[in-house]
Structures are given as C-alpha cells and as structure tokens.
Specification:
Layout: H1 5-17, H2 32-43, H3 48-55, H4 59-63, H5 65-75, H6 77-85, H7 100-111, H8 116-140, H9 152-168
Helix pairs in contact: 1-3, 2-3, 2-8, 3-6, 3-8, 5-6, 6-8, 7-9, 8-9
Length: about 180
C-alpha cells in the first residue's frame, strides 16, 4: 500500500490539535498516542484513510468542532466519518461531557453497529490505551487508577466489553496481544 503526503499533513494537524497536551498523569506529549494508534492500525492492515483517521481520532473530541470541518475539507468525508465514529463524546458549549458511564455505554452500543473502518481505528486506540495502563501499572502500581474518572472495576469492565465487541466483530485488532487482566 502506498502512503502519501496526506499522512504527513494529518500528522501536522494532529500535532496542532494536541499542542501542549500530555498523557494523563505523565509528562509524555499527547501526540505520542495518536502516532501509536496510527502505527497499530497500519500494523493491522489500515489503508491511508484509516491511518489518517487514527492520527486524528481525538482531534474533534479534544480540539472541538472546528477540527471536524478542517478534517472534512483536508481529508474528505470518509476520514471525518471514521473520526466521528471513534469519538465517545464531544464537550458541550460549556466544555462538559456527559457522565463517564453514560458515554461508555453509548459508545459500546455504537461500536456493536460500527463500520470495519471505525472498529479498526477504535480498536487500535483502545489497544494502545490498555497497553499504556498496563505499563503504568507495572511502574506506578495501583495508583495509576487515580488518574481516571472511572474506578479500577469500571475500567476493567469497559476494556473487557470493548474486547468482546472487537472479537465478536472479527476486528483484526482482537488478535493483538495485551494482558488487560494485569489490571
């Protein structure tokens, strides 16, 4: 598969969208996450549109509706549809999102009906998040869960639910190794 400058342009936009952000409870630049998600997606057969969506999967959620229009204009309707399909909640005008459990239940239901494109990018995102949690657990211990809105039990429930959907749907990502049960 041939990758073009569009992927580089998506990286530039992702860097802009996440400028100054860090991963929860760390000093790791947030952009490392979209890069990792795109890498995982490519390792599992992503095409260029899917890889671009992986780089931009949090841009609308973190950067606002302005990024939705920019993604549409720069990369097309297909990419913006994948990004929207991976978004579990855009803040309202006051900057607030719906409560955690409400958002996650809605997202799980959404994934059960999502396209293969969305499942690949979302699965890559969730796999990287799970791997990061496990890595942080190994270095920081149980305090890793203090970073999150959800409890440890809720986090495990969420990732098990996601894993079940990815497996049921036959998403390539469901075969990727991770040990979420270390949580």
């Amino acid at each position: 598969m041939k990758l073009t400058q569009r992927l580089g342009q998506a990286l530039t936009l992702a860097i802009e969208a996440h400028e100054g952000q860090v991963r929860k409870g760390t000093n790791i630049p947030y952009i490392s996450h979209p890069i990792a998600v795109a890498s995982i997606a490519l390792e599992h057969g992503a095409d260029e549109d899917q890889a671009i969506a992986a780089l931009l999967h949090d841009a609308i959620e973190d950067g606002g509706a302005n990024y939705e229009n920019r993604i549409r204009v720069q990369f097309g309707e297909h990419v913006v549809a994948i990004v929207n399909g991976c978004t579990d909640g855009v803040p309202d005008d006051s900057g607030q999102k719906a409560p955690w459990e409400e958002r996650k239940l809605k997202y799980i239901k959404h994934l059960s009906e999502a396209s293969d494109d969305v499942l690949l990018v979302s699965g890559s995102d969730k796999l990287h998040n799970a791997r990061s949690i496990v890595e942080d657990l190994m270095t920081s211990g149980q305090s890793v869960f203090d970073r999150f809105t959800a409890t440890k039990a809720q986090t495990i429930w969420y990732y098990e639910s996601l894993s079940n959907i990815f497996e049921e749907k036959g998403t390539p990502i469901s075969r990727a190794p991770t040990n979420i049960f270390l949580l």
